[in-house]
Every structure is written in C-alpha cells, then in structure tokens.
Amino acid sequence: MISYLSLKHAHAGLAYLSVTLFAVRAALSYARPAALQHKLLRIAPHAIDSVLLAAGVTLALWAGYAPHTQPWLLAKLLALPLYIVLGYVGLKKLHGSPWRAVVLALALIVPFYMMAVAKTKLPWPF
Questions:
Q1: Which residues, 6+ apart, have CB-to-CB distance to 100 below 8 Å?
Q2: What is the pTM (predicted TM-score) of this model?
Q3: Is 125 inside a domain boundary?
C-alpha cells in the first residue's frame, strides 16, 4: 500500500506536471495550434488531472480534512473550477482575441495560488 508521504509527493509532482503541460499547450496554441490536435496532447492532460484530483481527494480523506473545517482546502477547491474555466476559455474560445493572453496568464496564476495555499495551509498565503 502506498504511504501518505509517497502519495503527497506524487500529488505535488502531478500538480507541477499538469501546470507545465498547460503552459506548453498555451504556448503551442500560439506557435503551432495544429500540434494541439495530437492525440497525446488531447488525452494526457485529462489523465494527469484525473489522477491528480484522485490523489488530492485521497490525501484529504486519509488526513481527515474536510472543506468545511479547513478553509485552505475550501480555497483550493474553489480555485480549481476557476482554473478549469479560464484554461478552457483561453485555449478553446478566445482564438484571435486580445483577451486570450490575459485569460491564459490568469489561468497559469491560479494553480500557483493553489500550490501556495497547499504549502502554507492558509487561504490567502501572500
């Protein structure tokens, strides 16, 4: 059976991998948009993010954390849909718009906020 610490490290590694892959996809959406249609770039983000979410839920359950008792966890859970929506809009809906770069930059900021929250256990870590 996997240990809590091993799962925590896997979760953190998956988070960094997810954000890196999103940044690569955002850059490709400008430099080589057709490359985004590659099967690996269409499937890998969903697989990585699914395992990332499952690891996060498992960690919270194992540690006995609940969003209604841990404000930092609630902050992360509220930031997650924001990240998803900004990423979706930036990659799929704003082609040719001057707002696209702004939305993609905001989408990249959100997971760094989530990581800071995770490290400090504070809903406002700055």
A1: 90, 94
A2: 0.92
A3: no
